[in-house]
Specification:
CATH architecture of one domain in chain A: 7 Propeller
CATH class of one domain in chain A: Mainly Beta
Largest sheet of chain B: 5 strands, mixed
Structural class of chain B: alpha/beta
Distance between the termini of chain B: 39 Å
Strand content of chain B: 15-25%
CATH topology of one domain in chain A: Methylamine Dehydrogenase, Chain H
Shape of chain B: globular
Structural class of chain A: alpha+beta
Number of domains of chain B: 3
Number of strands of chain B: 8
Helix content of chain A: 40-55%
CATH architecture of the largest domain in chain B: Roll
Oligomer: heterodimer
Largest sheet of chain A: 4 strands, antiparallel
Radius of gyration of chain B: 20 Å
CATH superfamily of the largest domain in chain B: Phosphatidylinositol 3-kinase Catalytic Subunit, Chain A, domain 1
Distance between the termini of chain A: 162 Å
Strand order of the largest sheet of chain B: 2-1-5-3-4
Radius of gyration of chain A: 61 Å
Helix content of chain B: 25-40%
Shape of chain A: elongated
Number of helices of chain B: 10
Low-confidence stretches of chain B: none
Low-confidence stretches of chain A: 1-23, 76-81, 230-268, 281-299
CATH superfamily of one domain in chain A: YVTN repeat-like/Quinoprotein amine dehydrogenase
Largest interface: A-B, 34 and 36 residues
Strand order of the largest sheet of chain A: 1-28-27-26
Number of helices of chain A: 6
Number of strands of chain A: 28
Strand content of chain A: 25-35%
Chain lengths: ~600, ~280
């Protein structure tokens, strides 16, 4: 016990001494003390006994083992020592019995061996079988592996192809992107151009309105300053027919006509006017350049149309293709309309065309133009699904008739006053009241309506289903269907409303006598004549003696109605397909227009 | 610091040579040999005595065997105290090896807890760790651990794996540096002559003035008699892990290095041998 308590005693004391000297050292001291004591403890309690206990445990194990062996052997020897003969005999019996049992066991075991051998053989056979199958399976496996290789090879090829395609796709995509960029640029350019056009239009409108204001002002001034001459003018109505003032022309003709109608008997106004015009015509024939000619009113009937022989003027009339051309009833004004969305008015005088005015307002190309019988209004059909009506003195449309769902192909003044008729690609024909500016009737047709004409009380329309239909304009019902050889591209009716001309896509003009309501039809063909488009327009001459049509080869063909033969062929002026021709009511001029902006004035002069 | 690590190792690997003898009252087929074993100080009796049981069962009839328990010089040994504590408390100044008598009958239900499987030891061990951490860190550290971390602590003890145990136990020994120690030191003071099993009170590692408390401060507070007056013969030995640390040893350090795996600082106060 002293050994346990003594060792810690000495360091304890020294620790206290060290603690007196300094804090740092004392901290070390207590820790060193703990470490040393632990080492001491382990030395006494652990290390000393470690080996001892291990050896003891080993010995214990050996001992128990030895004891086990010993106990069994001692039991044997004890039985030996107490032996006697009887017990030996008994043992012998027992041994014999045991031998018998063992022999029996041997037999049993042999049987078992046999069974086992059978089983073994069976197993062996099965093994062989399995091996065979294994070989087969190996073969299949090899095959499959080959297949796998082939498939892999194919896959590689496919992959390569795919890569190539991918590459191509990438290329295509870059191209697409470039194209899109280009498209965007183009769009920008277009928008820019449109803007410029709009600006131009604005400035034009402004200029026009300013000019009109100026003119009004000037008129006002003249009115203010010249009161007396007007008085004198109104006091001398008898001398109006010879008045040379141009600006009073419209007014004077109007008055004259009213007077004429008033004086004429109601039963035969047409005969009277024709006679009067006959005189006019003769006089004009004498002095073509006289100022009086300009004062003449519209010519109702022409007695002698003259077949033109040469071109007087060739000019680029529009910025884009020209679709329609029409002379005014007075023959001195010509209207052309084209894809560039405007109608241009030309003054035709002394064998030349001069630009007078431009009528705009349509948002798409013009398809058809017509003057009203007085020559003061212009009706046009447009691609923008509407028909437009202008007064000649104003470039802004007076009316816009909207209601069709597709482009309007034809617009005509009706025989009844204040009515117009329009035909459209939407397979309807509409009747409009100009006073109400509204559609009053819609006639559903079975086919695309390409053109129509309006004789008295009926409407005749041409269609793409190779039919010409005659409608009662009051009932809106189809009275008659006339067959045509092809798609009807245009219709024209003679001034006396007796004959109907239709132009078809089978390059044939057909003249129908309307009087008989029969199939009395005459066809006109010519070598080289080819209908250039679905809207090519052919006309009857004002005296109903000739037919004129423009061909796809750029020539104007003129037939003689009475002989049925080609009268003449006017060529070399148009370079592209002619879209329309118009014969002036005076019979002097023909104007043909084509798809490449050119207009040609033909005459026999 | 190398010293600190050595201290931890020495504490962990502390062994007590023990001789187990079968109680002569037990009925045996033949004479039972005594069994010698080095018992780890930090473990629990029932956890390390499988071999002892096997050894004695060889010589006994199966029908005579009941739950095994241990006794030293008439005192039943409580398995739920660490082995080192049992030894220091009851047999520190006796001759080695420590003689323990093995019983298979007459289990003293009044003195001992039953221990039918290792899971009971595990539960006791883990509850001690949790209690200690409640004192040290308000349970924050042990609650932050996952189930497998708890298992690692127990498996470290069960399989005597120092590194495995300390890899996890290190976290339980951490404390915020600005506080200078744990919240309270988890300690238990055992006496042989008292009826109380042990003393356990709240005690901070640092005084309100900021000085580190030492072992001496703790004893003054809890058990003033253990400190010898000036010039007087020492009456008590203060034993931790079989050694007597100096009284000026800081309490925080002791708690960190001389605690048992259950995180308690087990202090035995035994009378100084008079011979």
């Amino acid at each position: 016990m002293a050994a346990v308590s003594d060792p810690p005693g000495a360091p304890e004391r020294s620790g206290r001494l060290l603690a007196g000297r300094g804090g740092g050292r004392s901290a070390e001291t207590w820790k060193r003390h703990v470490v040393r004591q632990l080492k001491n403890r382990d030395l006494r309690q652990h290390t000393m006994f470690q080996d001892l206990i291990r050896f003891y445990t080993q010995l214990l194990e050996k001992n128990s083992l030895a004891k086990g062996i010993l106990s069994s052997s001692t039991r044997c020897s004890s039985s030996d020592s107490s032996s006697s003969i009887s017990s030996l005999l008994h043992q012998n019996d027992q041994l014999k019995k045991t031998t018998g049992e063992l022999a029996y066991q041997v037999v049993e075991l042999q049987q078992q061996i046999k069974i086992k051998e059978c089983v073994l053989e069976e197993r062996h056979a099965r093994l062989v079988e399995e091996q065979c199958r294994l070989v087969g399976v190996f073969g299949v496996r090899q095959e499959l592996q080959q297949q796998v290789e082939q498939v892999q090879k194919k896959n590689r090829v496919l992959k390569m192809e795919y890569d190539a395609l991918l590459e191509r796709q990438r290329g295509a995509e870059t191209r697409l992107r470039e194209a899109e960029d280009k498209g965007g640029h183009l769009l920008e350019d277009m928008i820019h151009l449109k803007q410029q056009a709009a600006d131009r239009m604005n400035s034009l409108n402004e200029r026009k309105s300013r000019a009109r204001a100026l003119k009004l002002q000037r008129d006002l001034q003249t009115t203010v300053t010249s009161k007396v001459p007007i008085d004198s003018c109104s006091s001398a109505p008898a001398s109006r027919s010879t008045s040379p003032k141009n600006e009073e022309r419209g007014e004077s003709t109007e008055r004259r006509r009213t007077r004429l109608f008033r004086s004429a008997s109601a039963s035969s106004p047409r005969i009277l006017t024709s006679i009067r015009k006959l005189f006019d015509r003769k006089r004009r024939g004498r002095s073509v350049c006289s100022l009086e000619e300009d004062l003449m009113g519209p010519v109702g009937v022409c007695l002698a149309a003259r077949v033109p022989v040469r071109a007087l003027q060739v000019l680029e009339a529009h910025e884009q293709g020209i679709n329609a051309v029409t002379f005014s009833p007075s023959s001195d004004l010509l209207a052309t309309g084209g894809t560039d969305r405007v109608i241009k008015l030309w003054e035709v005088r002394a064998g030349s065309m001069t630009h007078r005015a431009t009528l705009d307002g349509s948002t798409e190309g013009i398809t058809c133009i017509e003057f009203d019988p007085t020559g003061s209004r212009v009706l046009a059909a447009s691609y923008d699904k509407s028909a437009l009506l202008w007064q000649l003195d104003n470039s802004v449309p007076k009316l816009t008739l909207t209601g069709h769902s597709r482009k309007v192909t034809a617009a005509r003044f009706s025989s009844s006053i204040h009515r117009v008729v329009t035909g459209s690609a939407d397979r309807t024909i509409r009747l409009w009241d100009l006073q109400r500016a509204a559609c009053v009737q819609v006639v559903e047709v079975a086919s695309y309506c390409s053109d129509l004409v309006c004789p008295e009380n009926c409407i005749i329309s041409g269609h793409y289903d190779c039919k010409i239909r005659v409608w009662d304009s009051r009932a809106g019902s189809c009275i008659q269907e006339l067959p045509a050889q092809g798609k009807v591209t245009s219709l024209d009716i003679s001034p006396d409303h007796r004959q109907l001309l239709s132009c078809c896509r089978d390059d044939c003009l057909q003249l129908v006598d309307l009087r008989w309501w029969s199939n009395a039809r005459v066809c006109f063909r010519a070598e080289g004549f080819k209908c250039g488009s679905d809207s090519t327009k052919a006309v009857i001459s004002p005296d109903s003696c000739f037919l004129a049509a423009g061909s796809a080869d750029g020539a104007v063909y003129i037939w003689n109605v009475s002989t049925g033969n080609l009268e003449t062929r006017l060529s070399d002026k148009h370079s592209s397909s002619i879209s329309a021709v118009s014969w002036s009511l005076s019979g002097e001029y023909i104007v043909s227009v084509d798809k490449s902006r050119w207009a040609v004035l033909w005459s026999d002069l | 610091m190398a010293d600190d690590k050595d201290v931890l190792r020495d504490v962990w690997f502390g062994r007590i040579p023990t001789c187990f003898t079968l109680n002569p009252d037990e009925v045996t087929e033949r004479e039972a040999e005594p069994y010698y074993l080095l018992l780890p100080r930090v473990s629990y009796l029932t956890l390390v005595t499988d071999k002892v049981k096997k050894h004695f069962l060889k010589v006994m009839k199966a029908e005579d065997v009941e739950e095994m328990w241990f006794e030293y010089e008439g005192t039943p040994l409580k398995w739920h105290y660490p082995i080192g504590v049992l030894f220091d408390l009851h047999a520190s100044n006796t001759v080695l090896p420590w003689n323990i008598t093995v019983h298979f009958k007459n289990f003293p239900d009044h003195d001992l807890l039953h221990c039918l499987s290792n899971s009971i030891i595990e539960a006791h061990f883990m509850s001690s760790i949790k209690e200690a951490d409640a004192l040290k860190h308000k349970s924050q550290v042990v609650n932050d651990m996952q189930k497998k971390d708890h298992k690692q602590l127990w498996m470290g003890l069960q399989n005597d794996k120092f590194d495995q145990f300390w890899a996890m136990n290190r976290k339980l020994m951490e404390y915020p540096t600005e506080e200078g120690g744990f919240r309270y030191i988890p300690f238990r003071i055992y006496q042989t002559m008292s009826d109380r099993p042990f003393i356990q009170k709240l005690f901070r590692p640092v005084s309100p003035e900021g000085n580190a408390h030492t072992l001496s401060d703790l004893l003054k507070e809890i058990f003033p008699a253990a400190i010898p007056n000036e010039g007087e013969q020492k009456r008590y030995q203060v034993v931790i892990h079989g050694i007597e640390p100096l009284l000026e040893t800081p309490l925080q350090w002791l708690s960190e290095h001389l605690s048992h795996p259950d995180n308690f600082l087990h202090i035995c106060i035994i009378p100084t041998p008079t011979d």
